[in-house]
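User: tokens in, sequence out, please.
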């Protein structure tokens, strides 16, 4: 019996404008880098499906992108990334999905080791690890050859600080998924990558560090190698790069403005 090898991954432009006409689902797309990625992708001509747990924030995010051209190419669906059925319902909003970006996360599981519980650590894994795996399972049902899944982690895996062991355990686990899923999905010609982010000026950072003004953010960022925190758009541009380039898979890339060097 002759076994026919699957066709090679399709060749297309590796430049961002090659994403025009594609459909990208963004889980965690209601603010910060997820929303910024949606804005960049929509500007490149892609159809964008935003998703988040909070309906009011989701409605606001969708409305902010629909205010320009092609409002019909911006959709939204409420879902927790760890709820596989809810994620599947988001995918069902469109006839096809080409790429998936998972930015859902947060600081669930933070705190001194002595204060951690099995429930708090399980919540961190549920949000980060199972959320990534559940999304990958749904994506594997839908994505065509050449499609991609982009996950996100953080530089706490390289430079942990006290009181973050629960978070780091979950975030570190996400990083192991890029090569593992890339190998598993290779016969389908699907790509999986993870971006290890540093500190960027997003609502998540401001809330976690108690930065209540632009001036506070400016001062807090002065000690970084580039003298400031990155913008949400600069963070999102890295995701666009990975989604656009059809020959990158199984990688964890660091985008932190050199913060992991100091």
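Assistant: Sequence out:
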């Amino acid at each position: 019996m002759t076994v026919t090898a699957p066709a090679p991954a399709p060749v297309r432009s590796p430049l961002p404008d090659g994403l025009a006409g594609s459909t990208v689902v963004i889980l965690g797309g209601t603010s910060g880098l997820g929303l910024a990625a949606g804005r960049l992708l929509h500007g490149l001509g892609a159809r964008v499906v935003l998703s988040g747990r909070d309906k009011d924030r989701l409605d606001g995010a969708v409305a902010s992108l629909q205010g320009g051209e092609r409002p019909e190419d911006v959709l939204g669906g409420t879902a927790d990334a760890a709820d596989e059925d809810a994620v599947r319902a988001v995918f069902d909003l469109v006839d096809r999905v080409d790429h998936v970006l998972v930015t859902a996360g947060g600081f669930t599981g933070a705190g001194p080791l002595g204060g951690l519980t099995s429930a708090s650590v399980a919540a961190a894994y549920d949000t980060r690890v199972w959320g990534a795996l559940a999304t990958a399972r749904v994506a594997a049902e839908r994505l065509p050859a050449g499609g991609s899944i982009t996950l996100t982690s953080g530089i706490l895996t390289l430079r942990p600080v006290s009181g973050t062991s629960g978070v780091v355990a979950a975030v570190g686990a996400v990083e192991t998924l890029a090569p593992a899923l890339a190998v598993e999905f290779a016969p389908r010609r699907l790509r999986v990558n993870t971006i290890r982010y540093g500190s960027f000026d997003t609502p998540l950072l401001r809330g976690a560090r108690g930065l209540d003004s632009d001036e506070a953010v400016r001062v807090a960022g002065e000690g970084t190698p580039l003298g400031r925190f990155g913008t949400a758009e600069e963070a999102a541009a890295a995701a666009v790069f990975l989604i656009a380039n059809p020959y990158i898979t199984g990688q964890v890339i660091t985008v932190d403005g050199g913060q992991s060097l100091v």
